[in-house]
Amino acid sequence: MTLKRNEGIIRTAAKLHQEGIIPANTYVIDLDSLEYNIRSLGQTAAENELNLYYMTKQIGRSGFVGNIIERNGIQKAVAVDVDEAIGLKKNNCQIGNIGHIVQPSKSQWNHVLTYLRPEVVTLFSFERAKQLSDAAEVLGMKQDVILRVIRSTDNIYPGQFGGFLLQELEYEVERLKALNGIRVIGITSFPVLQLNATKDDFSFTSNIETLKMARAVLEERGIDVKHVNAPSATSCYTIPLLKEHGVTHGEPGHALTGTTPLHAYNPNLKEIPSIVYVSEISHMDDQYAYTIAGGFYARSNMEYALYGRNEREMTKQRTKVDGISPTNIDYYGCLEKQSQMKVGDTAIYAFRTQIFVTRAHVAYVRAVNTQNPELVYLQRRGF
Fold it and tell me: Rounded to an integer, what distance in angstroms lies between the CA atom of residue 128 and that of residue 100?
């Protein structure tokens, strides 16, 4: 799909790698397309009166890209954890939501309130709520919070369990209302949307009904619900669907780079694919070519890669990708060997990324469809 919709980024990535301007193990992001995607998301959200928080974990969670996003119309970030929030804040980015995936630790609430100053904090439990409330009271503050609500039938990813049980929400709300340092204003759940079995559309998970029932509980207990946050696959395509179900907030991540699951199958979506992963053939044996790694993601479901020594070859030569086992460190990727392959060839992959869990560099480029593409910024991992 990237080759079909944004061939220029593939040509640019190959050119910059072969010229030694970027190293292997580098994600390349087309800033022009990224900015177009951001503006499109912002416009669609405005038309549907939906608020957006941008997510940067998939693209390296840097202040550089946070500033780019905010200049193009999405004003506040959702941070996967406190460390991401701190990195963004150091570059004067604004924090909208913190705590939804990773809760701040008990010693960090003062820092959250005085330095990060998020619009809302997502809470999973009364214990965390009390910690936050106590810290806010000491500072003479009252922090807006939203509650992650779950029930047994919900779709929750492994390692992301937690939240207020729907059947206990009435009781928990009364306890939370007694805390003077917080103000409950809404609810959230994740994931609310998933790619369907035929891979031609998104389907709502049962979590959307959990949100509706949780909203009713809060309103029955006298809470003015201003915030219904429904992240997962927030995009120009899904924003109107979210609005129909009473959602007020979304959190685009993969839509920023045109890489939600549906973007791999539907060429007519608004956002343009704008990210590739660049590697290099390190060595070969009789069966495989091994590529310098560090940036692979076990859930990426890669099938093919492009390879070659120049821009022309890159768009015409492809080979099968051997599976990347999550049980091993990705020192090397593995490609099915082809007769024309040479050590030093560029290898280019395109998949849904989670750069923050990798050892990869990130290169931001412009003018990918010209003869003189430009490297704007290189974010080096660990240096």
Answer: 12
How many angstroms separate the CA atoms of 296 and 329, rounded?
10
238 phi and psi angles, rounded to 5 deg: -90, -20
| Residues 348-359, mean pLDDT to the nearest whole number | 95
- pLDDT, one tens digit per residue, over 186-242 is 999 999 999 999 999 999 999 999 999 999 999 999 999 999 999 999 999 999 999
Average confidence score pLDDT of the chain: 96
Spatial separation of the C-alpha atoms in residues 275 and 8, rounded to whole Å: 11
In sequence order, the 6+-apart residues with CB closer than 8 A to the CB of 378 are 22, 26, 361, 362, 363, 364
CB 77 within 8 A of CB 53: yes
Asked if 91 and 210 sit in the same domain, the reply is yes
Across 243-274, b (16+ Cβ under 10 Å) vs e yields: beeebbbbbbbbbbbbbbbbbbeeeebbbbbb
Q: Is 333 helix (H, G, I), strand (E, B) or coil?
A: strand
Domain boundary among 217, 251, 285: 251
Nearest to 69 by CA among 45, 27, 28, 39: 39
Cis-peptide into 267, omega within 30 deg: no
**Which run of H or E residues covers position 190?**
none
Give the pTM: 0.96
Give Rg (Cα) of the chain: 22
The pLDDT assigned to 40 comes to 98
CA distances to 47, 74, 231, 242 from 236, in Å = 10, 13, 13, 10
In a shared domain, residues 83 and 176: yes
Residue 39 CB neighbours (<10 A): 13
Residue 70 falls inside a structural domain: no
Determine the Cα–Cα distance for residues 125 and 109; give it in Å rounded to an integer: 15
SS3 assignment, position 90: helix
d(CA 156, CA 33): 32
Rounded Cα distance between 1 and 36, Å, is: 17
* Residue from 373, 358, 352, 63 nearest 232 by CA: 352
Q: How far are the Cα atoms of 215, 320, 366 from residue 315, in angstroms, in the given order?
A: 50, 15, 19
* Token pair in block for residue 88: 């963004």
Give me the number of domains the chain comprises. Answer: 2
